[in-house]
């Protein structure tokens, strides 16, 4: 995946001033969206474990949490539903659409214990051109709590939306200049 990002860096996609930024850097530029309003499409198939209404409400609640952060001007907006399930994570193809989808079959490429993955794609100027989120529905049971070995969707989607806007993990002992 890193190679795909390097290729994108050489293509130099995305130009403009940043409205929001994160600690993730590319060529000494903060990785960020060039707009303060970023839409996210939701695959209409949703999760096999939860109703469509439950999934829609949980995603909306998580977006609201990020949108209410006082020190940030970025707003994640609902981009409607889509029949398209493929993401840059599952197909490797960049289509310019930001999509969230559950992968409920053997095409999940990241191992049985990975809950979800988010892939922002950016150019050498740090401008994000696309970010997709994929949830592991093949090996993981999703619920609205951590009961019965299920994963709490709201906790995980809130976490993944942080990656969607350009943030990444910072673990103890790691350098901010070269995070894990």
Give a verbal description of the structure.
It is a single chain. Helix 2 links the parallel strand 3 and strand 4 (75-82). The protein is globular, with a radius of gyration of 16 Å. The chain has helices at residues 2-11, 52-67, 88-91, 153-164; strands spanning 25-26, 29-30, 37-43, 75-82, 99-103, 116-122, 128-136, 142-143, 151-152. The protein is of the alpha/beta class and 180 residues long. The chain is built from 4 helices and 9 strands. Helix 2 crosses helix 4. The strands form 3 sheets. It has a 5-stranded mixed sheet with strand order 4-3-5-7-6, sandwiched between helices. Strands 1-2 form a two-stranded antiparallel ribbon.
In short:
The chain has 180 residues and is an alpha/beta fold. 23% of the residues lie in helices and 24% in strands.
Enumerate how many helices there are, as a single number: 4
| Mean of all residue-level pLDDT scores | 82
State the shape: globular
Q: Could you tell me the number of beta strands?
A: 9
User: Main beta sheet, described?
Assistant: 5 strands, mixed
Radius of gyration, taken over Cα atoms and rounded to an integer in Å: 16 Å
Strand content: 15-25%
What letter string, H or E per element, gives the SSE order? HEEEHEHEEEEEH
Separation of the first and last Cα atoms:
14 Å
Level of helix content?
10-25%
**Would you tell me the structural class of the helices and strands?**
alpha/beta
Q: How do the strands of the widest beta sheet line up side by side?
A: 4-3-5-7-6
């Amino acid at each position: 995946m890193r190679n795909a990002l390097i290729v994108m860096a050489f293509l130099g996609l995305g130009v403009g001033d940043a409205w929001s930024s994160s600690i993730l850097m590319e060529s000494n530029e903060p990785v960020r969206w060039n707009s303060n309003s970023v839409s996210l499409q939701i695959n209409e198939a949703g999760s096999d474990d939860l109703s469509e209404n439950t999934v829609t409400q949980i995603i909306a609640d998580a977006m609201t949490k990020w949108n209410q952060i006082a020190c940030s001007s970025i707003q994640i907006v609902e981009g409607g539903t889509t029949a398209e399930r493929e993401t840059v994570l599952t197909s490797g193809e960049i289509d310019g659409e930001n999509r969230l989808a559950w992968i409920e079959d053997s095409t999940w490429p990241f191992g049985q214990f990975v809950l979800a993955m988010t892939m922002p794609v950016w150019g050498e100027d740090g401008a994000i051109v696309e970010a997709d989120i994929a949830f592991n529905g093949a090996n993981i049971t999703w619920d609205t709590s951590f009961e019965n070995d299920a994963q709490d969707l709201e906790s995980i989607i809130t976490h993944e939306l942080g990656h969607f806007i350009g943030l990444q993990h910072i673990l103890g002992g790691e350098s901010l200049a070269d995070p894990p």
